[in-house]
Amino acid sequence: MSHHDDDSIDAPIDERRRHFMISGALFVAFSMVKGADILAQEVIADEGAAVHVAKETQALAGSLKTNPLLDAWIKITPAGKVTVFTGKVELGTGVRTALLQVAAEELDMAPSLIRFLTADTGASPDEGLTAGSHTMADSGSALLNAAAQVRGLLVGAAAKHFGVDPGTLSASDAIIRTQDGRTMHYGEAVGLVDLHRNATPNSPLKDPKTFRVIGTPLPRLDIPSKVTGGASYVQDMQLPGMLHARVVMPPVYDAKLLAFDEAAIMRMPGVVRIVRDGSMLAVVAQGEWQAVTAQRALAASCQWSPGRALPDPATVHRDLKPLCTQQIKIADHHVPSAPAVKTLEARFIKRYLLHGSIGPSCAVAHLEGGQLTVWTHSQGVYPLRDALAEMLSMPKESVRCVHTEGSGCYGHNGADDAAAHAALIAVAMPGHPVRVQWMREQEHTWDHFTPAMVTEVKASIDAGGRIVDWQYALWSSSHNERIVNAGRLLPARMLEKPFVSAPSTPMLQPEGGGDRNGIPLYTLPNIEVVNNFSPTMPLQTSAMRSLGAHTNVFSIESTMDDLAHMAGIDPVEFRLRHMDDPRARDVIQLAAKQFGWPRPPRARNRGVGFAFAKYKNLMAYVAIAVEISVEPETGLVRLEAAQAAVDCGQVVNPDGARNQIEGGIVQSASWTLHEKLRYDTSRIRSFDWGTYPILRFDSAPKRIDVHLIDRPGAPFLGTAEASMGPAAGALANALFDATGKRVREMPLAGDTLRKLIEL
């Protein structure tokens, strides 16, 4: 924006300030005398400088856009000790290891020589949430460039000190060497240059052909303690003088606490205090089992007001449509095409699912000297910090959230809510570290369930078997009720003076929420895709791995197979005929080749299926071929084997990438074949593993092979959530191949399938 065509200069001072704040400009306090020439000149100059800074910042890689200072990412002591920071968290995806590899590569250091720290509001850059398969694309890109620039500055400073050309120096393991043998370690070099400076758009990146750390299977940093029983999770934390707390939750949504027997509970062994604020109720004890025992007794003594009713679970497809009050057209493209000769119409349904965290949500909080520290497995320590400060009426600077791994899940489970519980109790008991862990039934019944979805498709093919029309609609909510204010914290809504949750808004394309991957990557001459958005859900819902992509790809890829059958064309060939993206074609062809597609005729009750997607149409490309077996008598479906081909750009840790694709296939199989939340009009009924079955070890696939297409030097493409949709689509198509029955309502297996086969 140039001041020559900007009419805001004649606006009142407050309006100009608002305008510049919105555009990212930084202001120095100035006189409020309207119309002063010197003021106008200063504002114009400030605006121009701010726009220049904004453009420079936006040109930076990944999260450097929002955290441009180099020493926010990398700190070097005078002794040469190197610490690297990320604002992302380890959720079991292996990103801590992969990010360390990225930094080590560009710093020319062995990973073992670097201290690597993840999200901590008292130390790390603010990278918001670790979600959406953004870690490598955002933090990985930022670290790649920050490390390269730091190395370049250090080498440049050493070159100036030695009086030589920087190109004649080499760096290895934090030591810079001249050709004649003189050396300087990074600690000495950092004394000659100031790293407290903004990154620049251009970085002295290494030639990918020289990579020694990136692209190698470095063993995961977090695995040893996990497999040996060491302290690995926030659930394992122990602090001196730590007290244990358990909370009592309402039996149903919107129930209010009326009364409880405080005197009886306070007489129980080890009980220190009962903390109540409105309907937020907790008991604190010296020992964990004492807290559990007291919590059970306390819960039994509580009297609650009636809560609100839930919808009939048998009418998901009817219940959702009236809730969807906003219609958003996310694709609308029409060109002349051949006439349609065959048309397919179908409806797909996904019910509510829960995260099913293996370890119930947990947090530890400690208020001391006016400073509150919370150890949490939240996916976003900075948003959580801000919400806790709001809830407690404390300055943000007085609240510190430190990420500590949880034995948890992918998505918005109870981590933030448990942290809020711990914070509320710790503030009520200053000086005492307080550990809060939810009970299993609380983790299940007060989960942020993944929203139910309904999708409908109408697609037509011409006489040559080409798709000539594609109409797709979906009904769902945002799939993302992450922490943006205190009202998004469950305990904050239960207080005597409750906070109100921020309104739900749709996540915009190309990322999308419920409509994520709702636009096929295939080349289609006529396409219309509509997201029917609901700002409310009758159940508490939020983000779970892949958001709407799981259901949308399931629907799209099932339809692609049905259209291929209508056209009499092999399903893989049918996809290739409609795919122009060369990288997509590569993974489709590789997965088919490794699987041996097309397979020869199969034994009875066995089937094969194929599916493809590019996650969010922005991230990793994944194609999957699967083989399943079906027991008609029981409706049991087993994923026997899978072959997956993946293009995630530059591969940092091959083992890590394969782990995520394998894990995604297994988890998607559990969702797609087995899982559904049980509830009735009174309350949630999935309160334990018996009432919410997941894939068991004896049903795990015998073989999964993941084939990576490495593209050295290409941007990192997020992988962790990329296999959820293709796995679901491939399973649905294999089930059709095995039984001749097209099942469009998840879960696909079980009694419903058995009855369908019997027809």
Write a brief caption for the model.
The chain has 759 residues and is α+β, with helices and mostly antiparallel strands. Helices cover 30% and strands 20% of the residues.
Distance between the termini: 67 Å
Number of strands: 25
Mean pLDDT: 92
Any idea what the radius of gyration is?
28 Å
Structure characterization notes:
The protein has 759 residues and is α+β, with helices and mostly antiparallel strands. The protein folds into four domains: 3-58, no CATH class; 64-210, Aldehyde oxidase/xanthine dehydrogenase, molybdopterin binding domain (Aldehyde Oxidoreductase, domain 4, 2-Layer Sandwich), CATH 3.30.365.10; 235-306 and 355-445, Aldehyde oxidase/xanthine dehydrogenase, molybdopterin binding domain (Aldehyde Oxidoreductase, domain 4), CATH 3.30.365.10; 453-479 and 514-758, 2-Layer Sandwich (Aldehyde Oxidoreductase, domain 4), CATH 3.30.365.10. The chain is 30% helix and 20% strand. The protein contains 18 helices and 25 strands. Strands 9-10-7-17-14-15-16 form a seven-stranded mixed sheet, with helices on both faces. Strand 2 (82-85), helix 3 (95-107) and strand 3 (114-117) form a beta-alpha-beta unit. The longest helix has 28 residues, at 135-162. It is globular. The termini are far apart.
Itemize the secondary structure elements and their pairings.
Layout: H1 13-22, H2 37-58, E1 74-76, E2 82-85, H3 95-107, E3 114-117, H4 135-162, E4 170-172, E5 175-177, E6 183-185, H5 186-190, H6 223-228, E7 243-248, E8 257-259, H7 262-266, E9 271-277, E10 280-285, H8 288-301, E11 303-304, H9 316-323, E12 326-333, E13 342-350, E14 362-368, E15 371-376, H10 381-392, E16 399-403, H11 415-428, E17 434-437, H12 440-445, E18 453-461, E19 467-476, E20 527-533, H13 549-567, H14 571-577, H15 582-595, E21 606-614, E22 621-631, E23 636-647, H16 654-673, E24 703-708, H17 724-739, E25 745-746, H18 751-758
Parallel strand pairs: 2-3, 7-17, 13-25, 15-16, 19-20, 23-24
Antiparallel strand pairs: 1-2, 4-5, 5-6, 7-10, 8-11, 9-10, 12-20, 13-18, 14-15, 14-17, 18-19, 21-22, 22-23
Helix pairs in contact: 3-4, 13-17, 16-17
